[in-house]
Structures are given as C-alpha cells and as structure tokens.
Amino acid sequence: HKTNVKRWSLLGRLNRGLFGLLGNPAGELPALYSHLNQLQAMRAGCLLATLALGGFTLGGYVLQIAPAEIPTNIALGSLWLSGCATFLSLILMLAISRLLLRRRGSWASDTFIAGATLLPLGVFVLVTPVALAVLPWLWFLLLTKAVHHTFITLYSGCHTVQHYSIVAATLLTPSILFVCLSTGYIVLQFFI
Asked: Are 143 and 63 a contacting pair, CB within 8 Å?
C-alpha cells in the first residue's frame, strides 16, 4: 500500500512539474531544478527530451513531414534522429557557452535545460494535426505560444540555472536555438 502511495505521489509531482513547465517556464524551471540533485536533473532532462521527441516524432509523422513514399519505419526513425540531434546539439551548445563564459555548471544542468527547452516544441508538433483539423487558425496561436515558451525556457535556464548575465542570456538564446534547430533540420534532410 505504501508503494502505491509513493508512486501516486511521484506521478502527481511529475504532473505538476510538467504542466508547470508548459504553463510558466520562467518560474517553474529554476524551482524544479533547485529541488534536484545532479543525477535527478540529468534523468529529468532526458525524460523531458523523450516526451518532446516522442511528440515531435508522432506529430511529424501525422503531418507527413517525411515524404509519403518513404517507409514508415524510416520516416519515424528519421524524425526521431532529427530530434535527438537537436537535443544533443543543444546540450553541447549550452556546455560550450558555459565554458566560454566561464560559468560553473554541469552536464546535468545542460541536459535539464535542453530537455525542458524542447518540451514546448514537441507538444506543439504533437497537437498541430488536431488543431489543423479542428480550427486551422488555432495553429498560429499554438505556434506563437510554443516559440515563446521555447525562448523563455532557454533564456530562463541560461540566466537562472547557468547564471549568465541578462545580456549574455538574451544574446545567446536565439543563437543557440538557431544552431540546434538547424542541426536537427540538416539531420532530417540527410535521412529523408
């Protein structure tokens, strides 16, 4: 009985954290990170990235980002690899920027920020087919919200978790996102 209570408690905390990140990334990201040790932060970042990559893969497949003549397993694999390349390049770019700015941090913080940053985009791609089918104009609103939350999450991670200055976080956020999303796009084009 105690094991079930612990599981439900853990699921409740995960649910609150996940929806907190999607609703208020600037407020929730530092609060969540401060409650995690290095191993938990790394695992949470990987879990968030897995959710984001799953959303991107399934939503991208339904949207037929990959051409229809490509077999299903190749299309799904290509979308997944593209998302993985984006995630890994985001971790790498965060680590490089942290080293160049001579800030303390770890791979765990880089992984956590990267996973949280990709979450709004993954959810957006997952719900896009439904939004386009129900209310096509809703797609633009969802796109705006997803892009906004992605920028705010990365900015908040750079500023509050990695302790970059406001100016450095402001300048680096779009550059890091551009490089990482471009990497994912190049990988997708290579496999399709």
From this structure: no
